Amino acid sequence: MTERRPRSFYVLAFVFALFLMFLYGPMISILVLSFQGPEGGLVFPMTGVSTHWFQRLWEGGGQVEIGSALRRSFVLALVVMVLTVTISVLAGLAFRRQFRGATVLLYVAIASLIVPSIVVSLGIALEFRLLDDAIKDFGAATGIGWIQNDFVSALGPFTSGLGAHLTWTLPFGLLIMFAVFNRFDPAYEEAARDLGATPWQTFRHVTLPMIAPFLIGVAVFGFTLSWDELARSSQVMGSQNTLPMQLAAKTTTVTDPEIYALGTATTGGSILLVLVTFTLISLMQRGRAKRG
């Protein structure tokens, strides 16, 4: 005899279904509407099914001019990813050794997670405006021509923008690496040193292969968080927009589903990146299991 489920089970199931609809409904709607016909609009019902808006987006002749913003965001995300992985690993190795002020330094490093993103962006923009004034005053005092005639601002994607994105990605990378090294068994490294390995050889042949799957996770975090960051980018990019900023600016004027096609394409790229990441981690774990 089957046990009768309580009424609360169905209530919770209904609430969970509403949550899934609220979470994935907009994404599914954009996915569907991006395949509108040439005469389609921004809302249902659809008028035909085609890849017209993807072709228009690829050709670059539509309302959403994304070529330069897309390239800029991609390169910036790659730089942020590399720096996030490198700094997180170095910090994780450093925090394995007890030193004075480590706890305070940790709190300072992750404090930006609890600060509103727009406040961080405004603060960085203010710092760079003060830096701009200092550079201009220095140019006027020393008579340096290019500063007086050509310098406008130090604000840009790879100066203030890079710093703003790192305030978002680094805390996640640090927390992941701290958790990894907290569970790391130092006996493997001690065995390598007993066999005559140098510190670099120990890291290269023992530590790095063991933490490699986690490094891939940190890299994905760094890339994706930078790729779609808007609030921290809003005040610090100067005259050059990133892709999220370009999209935000276009949402008030776009009148066709081309922007939906862009959303579908970028979402598909993110999903592909996640799938590739899980595949690489799975292959690494299988290879390590075979060697073990």
TrEMBL record:
Keywords: Cell membrane, Membrane, Transmembrane, Transmembrane helix, Transport. It is found in: Cell membrane. It is a multi-pass membrane protein. One of its GO terms (biological process) is transmembrane transport. One of its GO terms (cellular component) is plasma membrane. The chain crosses the membrane at residues 9-35, 74-95, 104-126, 165-184, 205-227, 259-283. Pfam families: BPD_transp_1. CDD domains: TM_PBP2. Residues 70-284 form the ABC transmembrane type-1 domain. InterPro entries: Bact_Polyamine_Transport, MetI-like, MetI-like_sf. PANTHER family: PUTRESCINE TRANSPORT SYSTEM PERMEASE PROTEIN POTI. Belongs to the binding-protein-dependent transport system permease family. CysTW subfamily. This is Inner membrane ABC transporter permease protein YdcV. It comes from Roseivivax jejudonensis.
